[in-house]
Amino acid sequence: MPGLSTFGIAKKNLQRRPWRSFCLIMAILLFSFFLFAGSVLSLSLSRGAESTANRLGADIMLVPEGFDPHVDSILLSGKPSNFYLPADAMESVKALETDIGIAQMSPQTFLATLNASCCSYPVQLVGLDYDTDFIVKPWLENTLHRKLHDGEIIVGYHVTGWPGETITFFSKNLTVAGRLEQTGMGFDSMVFMNRATIAMLSKEAERIIGRPLTNDGSLTSVIMVKLRQGYDSVAAAVELNRTLNSKGIYALFSKKFVNSIGSSLTAVSWIIRGSLFLLWVLAILVVALIFALTFSERKKEMGVLRALGASRSKLLRFCLSEAFLVSAYGAALGIILGGVLVVVGSPLIKDALHLPSLLPSFTGLFLLGLGSGGAAILTGLFAAFFSAFRASRVDVYEIMRGA
Question: In terms of CB atoms within 10 Å, which of 52, 79, 216, 396 comes out highest?
Fold first, then answer.
């Protein structure tokens, strides 16, 4: 066909058989879609778990006995919760400071806002002791580059509010001093302030609900403990539990919490990888079968092209060009649909799995898209190569005798 390139002929052929082309494109589309979405999900979970491990710089977390599941929900989802340790919890832990090797300890206060006219929206408020905090303060100060003043807050990535704006909690107007970068954890849905500010809000909360938040006036929800080098967090947690459980204090060593996330992540990652491998095998088989049937039906067409002077290498390039176009169309559509799923469905998937998730940057997503698209195109070419090679070896004289 003078005037038409190899790709031009391949494109005409795809247009001539729309249903066959549609089936081939759909096979590649599904493969590239799940490959891209699965890769993004796996990487997001890995980054989320790494972020969680980095943020939990404490060796031990002390929480009210029976409330340790709430720590999971707060750190992973930011679910608003109220729970408090006994008022003398800090003194009780300090009494064991030398025995278990405590290097640093810092209290945190959790206060769940109300879904009422007193508050702009329900979120988890966290009060920090700036003099002793070693968990949150370092990355808060990376955002603000100074201490938080009374009446100021720093909002998480998913909380609406920009520096200089005012947000109302429990009828008190607070100034947004800064916003945090995304962490993939419940921190993204929290609001941070100093202890003086959260004490003020707690009094206002008690006035609004008409009762005290605690029986003993405690304003400590969690105590973060860091041990001196060489001390075992498991042994320290066991000793704390032996001594303090009778007072309603429970020690949760953070490595157990991080390891539980890691175990869940490992299981999910293996499921994703196994599914992607099976999908890859299935895609190769399906695409190879469709191409085999396609080229088998077109023996006469190949014979005519050979009779017109097309070489075997030309026929092979023609068949692979068709496979390339099909794979490119399917891969491009699959990546686009996968991108839409990632943007829209990522929060839903995160909530369903109850695991920290942190999406890659735009550059990372772009590179993953290129990689997934390239893998899909190579898969299509690989699946079509054997059938294309056989089609290029057609015997023109045998075809003519059969005609």
Answer: 52
Report whether 392 contacts 316 (CB < 8 A).
yes
Strand partners, 107: 223
d(CA 287, CA 271): 24
Does 297 lie in the same domain as 273?
yes
CB-CB contact of 76 with 257 (8 Å): no
118 Cβ neighbours under 8 A, 6+ residues apart: 168, 169, 170, 171, 204, 208
Judged on CB neighbours under 10 Å (0-12, 13-18, 19+), 187 is buried
Q: How many domains is the chain built from?
A: 2
Domain boundary among 196, 218, 247: 247
H-helix segments, 56-173? 68-77, 89-94, 97-100, 137-144
- Higher per-residue pLDDT: 78 or 384: 384
Average pLDDT over residues 178-187: 72
- Please name the amino acid found at residue 386: F
Provide the token pair at 293. Answer: 């049937």
What whole-number distance in Å separates Cα of residue 86 and Cα of residue 399? 91
Instruction: Give the global pTM.
Output: 0.56
Q: Are residues 297 and 183 in the same domain?
A: no
Q: Cα–chain-centroid distance for residue 282?
A: 26
Helix 254-297 with 362-392: angle, nearest 10 deg? 30
